[in-house]
Amino acid sequence: MREAKRQTTEDSKYIQQHLANERTFLAWIRTSIAIIGIAFLMINLHEKSTSNALSTTIVQLIGALAVVISVCTIVFSTVSYVVKTKQINEQTFRPSRPLIWFLASLLLLITVLFGYYFFTLL
Length: 122
Hints:
With 122 residues, the protein is an all-alpha fold. It has helices at residues 15-48, 53-90, 97-121.
């Protein structure tokens, strides 16, 4: 029997870094799914309550904004994952601080809007 010769790939040199990159990517995806879920929950709860046309419009805008932010988060995290994979292999990794600040700002915005809406209901 001939034993298959195993070759070391570029990715296998930095396994821990690649696995950490994948965990970070999946965390962003989970965050996006949670934001979309909260948006749909908010819209459904609002529609079942008695409300006026203005509040319905506001809730729908907040929900739509949450979906847009979630889609942006998925797109940006995917691009970031691919770029980081290349940077890890080339040993030129640099943290993406502008992307983190941008996504954090969007998430903070949607959190403030959710909070404002729910506190006005009380």
